[in-house]
Amino acid sequence: MAAIRKSLLQLIFSGSFMKRWNDKLRPFELIEVDKQAHKMIAAWVLTLLNGRNLSPAEQVRLTAEVVEGGIFEYLYRLVITDIKPPVFYRIKANPDHYRLLTEWVMEQLAPRLMPLGENFPPRMTAFFLDPVEYSLSRRILDAAHQYASYSEFILLKGVNEPDEELKEIEQSFLTALHGYEDLEGLVDIMDPEGSVLGRFLRMCGRLRFQKRWSQTPRIPETSVLGHMYIVACFAWLFCLELDASQARRQNAFFCGLFHDLPELLTRDIISPVKRSAQAIGDLIHEYEMQEMERRVLGPLVEGGYQIIADRLSYLLGLSVGGEFISTVRENGKIRSVPEKDIAALDCDELDPKDGELVKTCDNLAAFIEAYTALKNGIASDQLHEAVWRIQRQYRKAPVSAGLHIGALLADFD
Questions:
Q1: 288, CA 20 to 30 Å: which among 93, 129, 263, 342?
Q2: Domain tally, the chain
Q3: What does the alpha-carbon distance between residue 242 and residue 399 come to, in Å, rounded to a whole number?
Q4: What is the pLDDT of residue 2?
Q5: What is the CATH number of the domain that holds 179?
């Protein structure tokens, strides 16, 4: 498999420009990457709950289908951005028209997907055109999509009244979601007041309001929620490049998707503050962990969702000191491992999480945020410093987590 190139990373990032609900009054912008992040958080919850009675191998397979399917849908959405949903659903209802549209989408994506191997485009095409059955993974993705879109609708509903389309739009969401009520957890995530699971999903969705680089003007502005999704996608794609196991791929994806979740409780504290002194960094981390236990993990356990609390704790590395520490699980016990050893321990049975790879993707996402803002004409010392610092870091150590990041960043010179 060829090395991932600049064009693919920029394609993933381009969802930060895509505005949603742009035919409605919006007191704030709703952005595609934010919606995708919220969707995949919901999908993660539904996958855990509906797969808990499966064997470990079947759980890995189900999660792999959900993650890959979610990324397929995001890539497809990036190409058909100008087609309004009602029009797209009419096209989808006609098999011949849908095939033509999908073939055109794949033609547009083909050059950028080449580094992912010759099997990736056919798998993606088959996902849309040749589904074997309406599988559990597909139902989870569809339910999560409807939930995330309906959550956005609720945010806009009050300021758009009276709008003759509102009742029809809301009813279409409720009808669609009703069809998934047999999925364990779906009814609960739809109840943000009475259910701890609903409150957790709503809390995660609020990260769309929290902007990164809050003291630095940028185009586009990115939220903490959208940033987490971009890091998740980068991590999954690089795991493909490394031919990682399915467990390592999905752990990298979901570690990326949740890695900044504690910032919901402390806000986005910029790196220079965290790094100004070891004591300050340690104090911030201690406070984040206390708040995670009090406001997230504790309520989930008390509400009967131990499985979600345990998995979230593993992804965030709470027992080993941080989300960017590589870990495996042996005989039910979690232990940290040196990054150089993670490849040798890369099998589904050990549940490997590649913390260094996720940290590298976090740096890459920050680099692309700053680089893109500069290219769009936003002059800022903070942005210039970030681009310089990250490039310098990977010039000194060009290989990180087994990836040639120095060569990749050279494409941006």
A1: 342
A2: 1
A3: 13
A4: 62
A5: 1.10.3210.10
